[in-house]
Amino acid sequence: QMCIRDSSTCVIIQRQDMGRKAHKMKRMARNIIIAIIIVAVICGLVYSWQSRQQLDYRDCLEETAFTVDGQAVQMKWLGFYVVYEEREVEKQAQIYHADNTADYWNLHVDGHFIRQDAKDTIMQMAIHDYIYYQKAQAEGMTLDASEQRSLENTISDFWMDLLDDQVDNLPVTDEYIVETMQRIALAEKYQAALAAKKDRSYTSYSWNGGYYKKWLAKQDVEINDKIWDRVSVGNITLKHDKVNYVNGQDEKDSDENENRKK
User: Fold this and answer.
1) Which of 15, 27, 125, 252 is the most buried (most CB within 10 A)?
2) Stretch 56-84: mean pLDDT, rounded?
3) How far apart are CA 1 and CA 7, in angstroms?
4) CA–CA separation, 107 vs 93, rounded Å?
């Protein structure tokens, strides 16, 4: 009846209602945007925190380590290489500082961290051998009697050379390590055949060989950095309980030297 009596008043009221509704909608939209931003920030912080948390290699054996032409290869494939490379680096570490080998693992030499170099070596050796093993299988390659005997000697030497800490701390089964070494033997046979075919040295097609690296750069190979970056190489088959703060000294020794200077 108000609109009938006074149409101008009715228009004003309608405009006021529309204004209040528009303001309410803007406020709701603003709150939604703020909520979305807050959620995005929280998710970003959670992801950032998770990405910095170290993973136990044994807990991610079924995760993808790398892909070759879209074919996923599990972290388990790296088991032998982890054991082998940790042993090799630890031997050098024992020469550098036998009382605390963690010092060597944490060194930064010629622009490279020893630990990261070991990590890269593990991954690149595994990729190299996987690719060459697949090619050896495709060509129907097998080991002859002489090659099999040589492999058996290599396997025996491998077990004998394991460090004491590693013997009871293997990340995969003994059987899987032997299976990996059998695959490596076939990969090496393919590598030798390829080098002979191309009339080049055997090492030029090793995992760090020049011709192999040029060829690899053109291949569809992707490393799962989201997982691999969080694995601490050097602490999988080995135990470095004490970390030195000064090369050649532990924290206690460093404090004592400071006290002497005073």
Assistant:
1) 125
2) 97
3) 10
4) 10
What pLDDT is stored for residue 40 in this prediction?
A: 63
Could you tell me the two tokens for 218? 């053109």
Single out the residue of 126, 121, 129, 122 nearest to residue 189, CA to CA.
Answer: 129
Buried b or exposed e, range 200-235, using 16+ CB within 10 angstroms: eeeebbbbebebbeeeeeeeeeebbeeebebbebbb
Instruction: Let me know if 135 is exposed, middle or buried by CB neighbors in 10 A (0-12, 13-18, 19+).
Output: middle
Q: pLDDT digit string (tens) for 7-51?
A: 555 655 666 666 666 667 777 777 777 777 776 665 444 444 444
DSSP string, 164-218: HHHHT--SS-HHHHHHHHHHHHHHHHHHHHHHHHHT--SGGGSTT-HHHHHHHTT
Q: The pTM is what?
A: 0.74
Question: How many angstroms from the chain centroid is the CA of residue 152?
Answer: 30
**pLDDT score, position 7:** 56
